[in-house]
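Cross-posting from the modeling subforum.

Setting up a comparison between two proteins and wanted a second pair of eyes on the formatting. Protein 1 (sequence, then structure tokens):
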Amino acid sequence: MTYVLQLGLIGICIALLPLSYVWVKADDNKFRKLVWLTTFLTLDLVMFGGFTRLTDSGLGCPDWPGCYGTSSPFIAHAAITAAYQAMPTGPVSIGKAWIEMIHRYFAMAIGVLIIAQVLIAWTARFKRRPLHVSPWWPTGILMLIVVQGAFGAWTVTMKLQPVIVTTHLLLGLALLGSLGWLAARQTPIPAIDPAAARWLPAALIGLLLLVVQIALGGWVSTNYAVLACTDFPLCNGAWIPPMNFEHGFHLWRALGMTGDGDVISQDALVAIHWTHRTFAIVVVLYTLWLAAKLRRFESLRKPANGIMIVIVVQFLTGLSNILLQWPLPIAVAHNGGAAILLLLLVMVNFRISSSRPGHVVGPSATAPRDAVPASLPRQAP
């Protein structure tokens, strides 16, 4: 298992770069800087995960956590070459192996950064320094990334089974959303009109609808159903084309197969695509309505504007995927747009939550930087 230790060292070395940046940066709140940087890098990792999936690189190294029992495609070069020569159109090649391993290296680096957050948070708790968050929050995020890593392993060992890959995607976005919430708790927020509190249920519904739509989009991608409908607004020349929902949404099955072990039909793929496309209309209309309503509040105007812009971009990139036959840059941008929209809705929900009377969730924009929260006792002079 020497190569596992080598993989760990690679992850630590990569994580040292952002950790060094946080350490030398002129900011009196290193923890806040670290959380925001980890959130940004996790967004990048989610997008690179989409790139890995879209380039069919998920099995570029068909074992886990290394590549043919080594820590690097350099070392596994002979095994990769042999696999490629045996099946040139198969999932293994030098390029795909590097894409897959780079994704794993950066995932390990994110794990190291979250471990650093856990250590800082618990140290602050023991030394009674305020962080405006319980140390159990970063600890929970660390547990989430462990589960995410397990699904990453099963993605490979279970040969890209759609339900495993989709769950892996959703867990990655849950990790991103949790980090975004933690970052928001560490950031001073402007005064918010208490009247915004009544929009919390609507904002939560918007977030839930988006999560369902992302799950449907992940199901489209993992089943390679993006081009099941090649026209718009019709689907293969019909508003309601022939579809097979039973096979399309049977969860536990191998890639490209039905639950009975037969090759999945085109009608099943059309059902997957059509459902994602149709539900997108609901999400777009509801989210645009919600953003328009939230723009009336000064403290919510910027994220609401961001939501409206990203929704439009998502519609255009989704349409381009169909009409331009799924070009890779646009497909990656569509994945990234969903992640950014999730972050924006998380931020909106956080700000609305903070507007509830007597509900303190983070530092105030006007509070002194060294202020001790009411939940922590002040030490005697």
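Protein 2 (same layout):
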Amino acid sequence: MYRPKTTLEQWRILQAVVDYGGYAQAATKLNKSQSSLNHAVAKLQGLLNVQLLEVKGRKAFLTEAGEVMLRRSRHLTQDVEELEALAESINQDWEPEITLAVDLAYPRALLYPVLADFLPQSRGSRVKLLDTVLTGTEDAITQGWADLVIGGSVPRGYLGEAIGEIYFEAVCHPSHPLAQMPSPLDSNELEHHLQLVIKDTSASPQEKQGWLKSELRWTVSQFQTAIDLLCQGIGFCWLPCHEVRDLVKQGKLVRLSIRHSSFRKHINWLVLPRPDTSGPGTRLLQELILAHRQLKAPDSGQDPRNNNAND
């Protein structure tokens, strides 16, 4: 039988040194001495006879071989974590708490009937319903802190079920200068006006979605705050159609017609981050969400902002 030369702890220390940006930072996060981390990585490199890190100045950088080994090591440590979680799941009949992370843009009107159906069957499980935005929603999946996640994308290496569609449109107050300009607007015009954006809930946000080219941006944490500012004539913002439809109908907000971008479409995905270790309560909640999903594509030629799928 093969006996490994290295230990999981050595690989975890290597991951921490890379993830936290150096030995000193990793030592603080792991509550270990910096010398013990240096020793562990040095021993790991010696056992493998491969240089994984090289120090330049005060920072440690991965070598090409180190990048490959680190990537493979993450699969190893994740598999062990999932194996231990599976053992814990086998020993419990029904999870005491279920964490459901839901992207802020997902219509809550679609979610509440699900929770109403779940309550009589929940066996006393507590439900933690948390709002997430953009990268924060992906973190709930990749970091595994949520049992179920509803978001606008599926990270690489995970599977998801499509459960609906959301359309975003740019809106502002009728008196805003952008609303007075001839349509359609050139996107260059937007760059000179205040843009309201919703705060990414990730600790390490990545600006990889949406139009974020305005020279001046204000960040808020909720759609309602953005809507309140818009109604005061402050800025413009891309918001879900279902959040602003009534205000547009009442004339309190207006849609901006922008060349090459009348609206943006997002698919809603339901993701089970740890399918092999999910408990029966999580599985039931997943089934109920799928049973209530409303996947409706707009009819050809119909303005999707008026489609019932956004209600």
